Write a sequence for this structure.
């Protein structure tokens, strides 16, 4: 992070006399960051619980990552300290030592100490957080020898690589003095968070907006630049495009502007389309399979379905090119773990039909082999459209799929609790390490009701063994090797079918600067974002 | 009656439009034998550019004209089925209430009022989101919001008919009250109830479209409402995807209204000549 070191008075003076500012010599290599201004952005969902330590999801991070900070944030070449300045794992994998930042205060004025980290880790991440429950399951104790050191102690060897990869998304630190001794899940600070971040939470008007204001006492020097961030609730995607054209909002992240509109809106003067800044937030388009159906328990049928899907069509027509075809359970843009050396299933209808014949499911008199219930996830336009496409693709090979549309809550219940589906379309997120949210999609023995996990009744002892082994492998090369095996096994046995991977797009007014300067930009703290006059 | 129907301009126009729609609905499987939801060509082809897809294609490359024809089937089927169900339920409930009187009348009419104070569309929406979107459920849901009108009209008619001589005569010869209600009273009360049919069909077609637009239609069938909703995402770059099914919807509803007007005119003039 490059923070320009400018005195506040000088900047305010400059802003007051903007005309004079233009005459000042400005360094040619970078534009001078301007302090002040209100940034209005579109919010397409409106989470009530804004505590990122409990709900680690992008919808929550989008607002709360500006208020509540993690120990470290991702950059394009590794990690950068936030509340921790250094981290070191022991050789036996049983402990990780964090050196914490000094001189940091909570928004209510109390000092931030290692006790806050210990409390957050043991009471919140490990016990309550959707992702932390997996990664921190062996966390036994957090020692706090002084106010600025926290030593995580694990019951079983835990790979330091995994902990490092988990830092940006899983380690939001909440204030102990507000949560201790209360019902954490029902604490009022969950809806009006108090953190250490560059912005304070000011208010939430249901159905209208969230408002964040500048934290004058932020530990970062000279930042944040913005006075205020307003999240205007705009659930209608067409409205977001119109609002940005009219300059009512300055930024719409997470593809709030429909893909089909990007080409047109990129030509509007003063509006820019940014496709970077989501590298560490890769969404995967996946066909989930219920292996309890005897037809789908047959590997030949699953391979036939994989061959019936034209991934190029999906990328070009549904995602309009803003996606890439997937090869396996780890996305291509992950530099650490991805391997291309896995079995591939090219689009081939003749082969798909032959595989189904071979499996013993000949076409009946009406040209159909068997019927399936297809549940497309309702979260994105693209998942719904892919559901429409998949129904047609399956019809081409004689499988009669019936689409069942549900709202988000009913969809999660049907798929992950009641198992009332044959195939489903899901958009899981890859979070920088397969152990965080990817292996859970195929691992056996997961209780009913855990969302975005293997609820298709799939059990493969070989895959389970590799996942188990990797979870305790400390050597990073060996661990990566195991995940290469994992990718091969998944691509061979197809417990689910990976179709495509996509990042999102941001549409912004040209006046918004320092956008997409890290791989989790939309869910990072925006301290260095500024508005050109 | 038929001759009189064709003597009014409303009757002629309405009948012509409805005949065309019915023809389109019946001919759809012959003209477009493939599933109208199948991907037939390149995506977002504008209208009148490719003779294979006269009205163009949508976001996934589905033929708009095929969707329009097959959509007519669903719209008309839902409209007629929902209206038939609403008229049947309404006529029976209204007749029983009016004929029985007393406590039964009070009870049935309070039930009808309970349905009337909830906006019909809200009732339909709630029913579909609980029972799950499929064609029979949509028909039932629309009927649920529309049966009260016919019930009230039928009751009012029955109240006057039940005092007539032929009803009293039936009583005297010892007919069962239910038989009197259904065979002697209801047939005479029906004509004014039937006059409501065009209003109900038109309303049902619109309600079905609105449900599909909100994503609560049957996703395995093409409907005009769903086509409009699909096109909304690309409204700025391909407005024809919403406009074309929108026009179809307007034409269908206007057709049904005109036909209804024509029928009312015709029956009114018949009464005048009597």
């Amino acid at each position: 992070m490059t923070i320009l070191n400018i005195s506040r008075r000088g900047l305010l003076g400059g802003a007051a006399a903007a005309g004079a500012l233009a005459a000042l010599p400005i360094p040619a290599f970078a534009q001078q960051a301007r302090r002040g201004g209100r940034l209005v952005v579109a919010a397409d969902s409106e989470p009530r619980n804004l505590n990122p330590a409990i709900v680690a999801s992008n919808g929550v991070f989008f607002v709360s990552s500006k208020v509540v900070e993690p120990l470290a944030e991702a950059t394009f070449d590794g990690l950068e300290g936030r509340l921790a300045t250094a981290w070191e794992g022991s050789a036996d994998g049983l402990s990780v030592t964090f050196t914490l930042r000094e001189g940091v205060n909570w928004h209510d004025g109390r000092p931030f100490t290692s006790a806050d980290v210990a409390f957050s880790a043991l009471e919140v991440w490990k016990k309550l957080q959707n992702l932390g429950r997996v990664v921190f399951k062996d966390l036994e104790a957090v020692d706090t020898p002084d106010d600025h050191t926290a030593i995580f102690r694990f019951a079983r060897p835990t790979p330091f690589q995994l902990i490092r990869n988990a830092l940006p998304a899983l380690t939001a630190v909440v204030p102990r003095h507000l949560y201790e001794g209360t019902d954490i899940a029902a604490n009022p600070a969950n809806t009006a968070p108090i953190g250490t971040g560059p912005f304070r939470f000011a208010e939430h008007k249901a159905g209208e907006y969230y408002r964040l204001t500048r934290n004058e006492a932020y530990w970062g020097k000279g930042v944040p630049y913005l006075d205020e961030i307003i999240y205007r609730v705009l659930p209608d995607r067409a409205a977001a495009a119109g609002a940005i054209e009219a300059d009512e909002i300055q930024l719409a992240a997470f593809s709030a502007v429909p893909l089909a509109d990007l080409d047109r809106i990129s030509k509007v003067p003063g509006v820019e389309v940014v496709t970077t800044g989501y590298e560490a937030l890769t969404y995967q388009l996946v066909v989930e399979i219920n292996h309890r159906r005897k037809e789908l328990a047959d590997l030949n049928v699953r391979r036939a379905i994989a061959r019936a899907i034209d991934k190029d069509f999906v990328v070009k027509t549904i995602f309009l090119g803003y996606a890439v075809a997937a090869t396996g359970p780890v996305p291509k843009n992950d530099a650490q773990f991805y391997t291309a050396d896995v079995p591939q299933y090219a689009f081939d209808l003749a082969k798909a039909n032959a595989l189904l014949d071979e499996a013993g499911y000949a076409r009946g008199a009406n040209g159909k082999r068997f019927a399936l219930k297809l549940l497309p996830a309702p979260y994105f336009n693209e998942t719904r459209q892919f559901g429409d496409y998949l129904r047609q693709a399956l019809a081409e090979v004689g499988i009669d799929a019936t689409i069942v549309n549900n709202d988000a809550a009913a969809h999660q219940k049907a798929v992950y609790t009641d198992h009332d589906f044959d195939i489903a379309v899901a958009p899981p997120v890859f979070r920088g390490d397969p152990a965080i949210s990817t292996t859970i999609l195929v691992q056996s023995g997961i209780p009913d009701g855990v969302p975005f996990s293997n609820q298709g009744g799939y059990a493969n002892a070989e895959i389970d063994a590799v996942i188990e082994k990797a979870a305790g492998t400390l050597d990073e090369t060996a661990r990566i090797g195991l995940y290469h095996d994992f990718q091969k096994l998944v691509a061979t046995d197809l417990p689910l079918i990976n179709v495509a991977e996509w990042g999102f797009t941001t549409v912004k007014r040209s006046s918004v600067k320092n956008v997409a300067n890290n791989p989790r930009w939309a869910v990072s703290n925006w301290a260095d974002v500024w508005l050109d006059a | 009656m038929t001759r009189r129907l064709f003597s009014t301009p409303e009757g002629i126009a309405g009948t012509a439009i409805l005949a065309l729609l019915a023809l389109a609905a019946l001919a759809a499987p012959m003209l477009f034998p493939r599933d109208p939801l199948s991907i037939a060509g390149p995506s977002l082809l504008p209208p009148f550019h490719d003779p294979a897809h006269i009205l163009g294609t949508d976001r996934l490359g589905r033929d708009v004209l095929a969707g329009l024809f097959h959509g007519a089937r669903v719209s008309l089927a839902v409209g007629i089925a929902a209206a038939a169900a609403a008229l049947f339920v309404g006529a029976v409930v209204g007749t029983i209430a009016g004929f029985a009187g007393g406590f039964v009348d009070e009870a049935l009419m309070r039930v009808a009022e309970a349905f009337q104070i909830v906006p019909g569309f809200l009732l339909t929406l709630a029913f579909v989101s609980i029972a799950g979107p499929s064609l029979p459920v949509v028909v039932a849901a629309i009927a649920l919001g529309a049966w009260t009108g016919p019930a009230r009209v039928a009751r009012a008619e029955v109240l006057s008919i039940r005092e007539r001589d032929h009803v009293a005569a039936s009583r005297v010869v010892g007919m069962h009250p239910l038989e009197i209600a259904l065979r002697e009273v209801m047939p005479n009360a029906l004509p004014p109830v039937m006059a409501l049919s065009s209003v109900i069909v038109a309303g049902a077609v619109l309600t079905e479209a609105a449900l599909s637009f909100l994503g609560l239609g049957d996703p395995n069938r093409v409907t005009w409402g769903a086509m409009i909703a699909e096109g909304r995402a690309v409204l700025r770059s391909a407005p024809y995807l919403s406009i074309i099914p929108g026009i179809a919807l307007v034409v269908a509803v206007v057709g049904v209204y005109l036909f209804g007007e024509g029928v009312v005119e015709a029956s009114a003039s018949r009464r005048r000549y009597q």
